Amino acid sequence: MLDEGIDNYAASERFTPAEKIALRYSELMSVNPDAVDAAFLDELRKYYGHDEIVELGAFIGFNLGYHTFFGTLKFYPLFSPDGRLVSQAESKKLYGAAPISLGKAGAAE
Amino acid sequence: MTHIAPLPKEGITDPELKALIAEGEALGVPDNLFPCILARAPEQAVPLMRALIMSHGQGNVDHRLKEIIRILLARFANDKYFASLRSAKARAMGLTEQRIDDGCSFYEEDAKGFSAAEKCALRYADLCSSTPTN
């Protein structure tokens, strides 16, 4: 479900329209914020109240900023996909240069 | 016309949020528009405003430098609202529009008069926005 949400949410049948537009909102905020226009907001309003749109927008904005910062600090997960406490050097090897699906990482082992 | 209408300021009753709005207004960043939009989700608005004011208005880094960085990033993000706001505290400390503009472009030029530390901080902000992981 998580991987499908990231890779294939628009075509997936496992997400509701409300979930799809929230995922679309986060994607647009990251790659094309100008597309979050009046028409898009009208679409969001079909599924979310103003309180929820503000909550979602703040959450997305925080995550965009924090992950930019955290990504520059080059720290890696404390635990391996199978739950072992690992060093940062080992973690870097396990998780690689870019985030990958934990499900796929587990399947590869 | 905002996409999400702000709540009327007079209608905000949460004392903590009211105090944070007043604090933002005194600083000038943000004025009451942004928090009154945030107030649509009041439980989110309080911690968000607190973090925003604390990270910008407090701490050990020169507030004038943080104000230049804030405006630089707002301009990068095409955020016309925050790019137009100015910190009264930074102004009182002597920050001018010329200095802000100097910091937002070609800040590495010696003629701009930024110290090595200031140039490094501006480059840090610049890179975090443009090519964060390279």
Class of secondary structure makeup of chain A: mainly alpha
Helical fraction of chain A: 55-70%
- Please state the structural category of chain B: mainly alpha
Q: How many discrete domains of chain A? A: 2
Tell me the count of domains of chain B: 2
Oligomer: heterodimer
Average pLDDT figure of chain A: 87
Global outline of chain A:
elongated
Q: Extract low-pLDDT stretches of chain B.
A: none
Separation, N- and C-terminal Cα atoms of chain A: 20 Å
Distance between the termini of chain B: 38 Å
Share of residues in strands of chain A: under 5%
List the total number of helices of chain B: 8
Estimated radius of gyration of chain A: 17 Å
Biggest beta-sheet profile of chain B: none
**Unreliable runs of chain A, pLDDT <50, ≥5 residues?**
none
General form of chain B: elongated
Keywords for this entry:
heterodimer; A: mainly alpha; 2 domains; 6 helices; 0% strand; B: 134 residues; mainly alpha; elongated
What report would you give on this structure?
The complex is a heterodimer of chains A (109) and B (134). In chain A, helix 2 (17-31) crosses helix 4 (50-73). Chain A has two domains: 1-72; 74-109, no CATH class. Chain A is built from six helices and no strands. Chain A starts with a helix and ends with a helix. With 109 residues, chain A is an all-alpha fold. Chain B is mainly alpha-helical. Chain B has two domains: 12-57; 63-130, no CATH class. Chain B contains eight helices and no strands. Chain B has helices at residues 15-27, 33-38, 42-57, 63-76, 80-84, 88-92, 97-104, 116-130. Chain B starts with 14 loop residues before the first helix and ends with a helix. Chains A and B meet through helix 4 of A and helix 3 of B.
Give the topology:
The complex is a heterodimer of chains A (109) and B (134).
Chain A: H1 2-8, H2 17-31, H3 38-45, H4 50-73, H5 88-95, H6 102-108
Helix pairs in contact in A: 2-4
Chain B: H1 15-27, H2 33-38, H3 42-57, H4 63-76, H5 80-84, H6 88-92, H7 97-104, H8 116-130
Helix pairs in contact in B: 1-3, 4-7, 4-8
